[in-house]
Amino acid sequence: MIHLADYIDHTLLKPDATVADIKKVCDEAIVHGFKAVCVNGCHVALAKERLSGHGVLLATVIGFPLGAISTKAKAMEAEDAVKNGADEIDMVLNIGWLKSGMDDAVKEDIGLVKTAIGKATLKVILETCFLTNEEKKRACRLAVEAGAEFVKTSTGFGSGGATFEDVQLMKAAVGERAKIKASGGIRDRQTALKYIELGAARIGTSSGPYLVNP
């Protein structure tokens, strides 16, 4: 039987999230035993302190939500996040570069972030709503070649979120070489379980408590 809490990245990335909101998300993750909490970079130190000693991983987002800042800026942002306590980095790949066929630049963008964070886990957000199926496959290949441990569907801020079809496509593209994180619009237990059945190893959601206690 699937223990859903083990898959959940409990997420709060709203621009108006307060300190009290961040503390609440961390406390919910501790109570429910979620795999991780995902917050914006300015909240990493606070969340790390709140989660200390409770076995919940801490993730943050890089180049979020557009993926269009410079590679150097992404790498510096990621390095700073790890220094402040982040265990995992969810970076947005450069969508415009991918669509322009600049595969070497996309791979370098991911690779330099991975180099900057060392042993920390790297998840690459494809933002699938903006990509063709061919581009999704290329993005998965480039992420794996650059050393990412995960490929992730969505930021939650694009025009669409995760779909069953995209998770199936991504799983076929990466095989066992990387894991899949489904995120964006996942708000009920049955949908989350379906994504896991299709191969997702993580579920990014702001509805974690509802998913485990519907």
From TrEMBL:
Keyword Cytoplasm: yes
Gene Ontology molecular function terms on file: deoxyribose-phosphate aldolase activity
Transmembrane segments: none
Function: Catalyzes a reversible aldol reaction between acetaldehyde and D-glyceraldehyde 3-phosphate to generate 2-deoxy-D-ribose 5-phosphate.
Enzyme class: lyase
Cleaved signal peptide residues: none
Protein name per UniProt: Deoxyribose-phosphate aldolase
Protein's pathway: Carbohydrate degradation; 2-deoxy-D-ribose 1-phosphate degradation; D-glyceraldehyde 3-phosphate and acetaldehyde from 2-deoxy-alpha-D-ribose 1-phosphate: step 2/2
GO CC list: cytoplasm
UniProt family annotation: Belongs to the DeoC/FbaB aldolase family. DeoC type 1 subfamily.
Keyword Iron among UniProt keywords: no
Biological source species: Flagellimonas lutaonensis
Single GO BP term: deoxyribonucleotide catabolic process
Keywords, comma-separated and alphabetical: Cytoplasm, Lyase, Schiff base
Reaction(s) catalysed (UniProt annotation): 2-deoxy-D-ribose 5-phosphate = D-glyceraldehyde 3-phosphate + acetaldehyde
InterPro entries according to UniProt: Aldolase_TIM, DeoC, DeoC/FbaB/LacD_aldolase, DeoC_typeI
SMART domains listed in its UniProt record: DeoC (SM01133)
Primary location recorded for the protein, binned into one broad class: cytoplasm
Enzyme Commission number(s): 4.1.2.4
Catalytic residues, chain numbering: 90, 152, 181
Gene from which this protein is expressed: deoC
Subcellular location: Cytoplasm
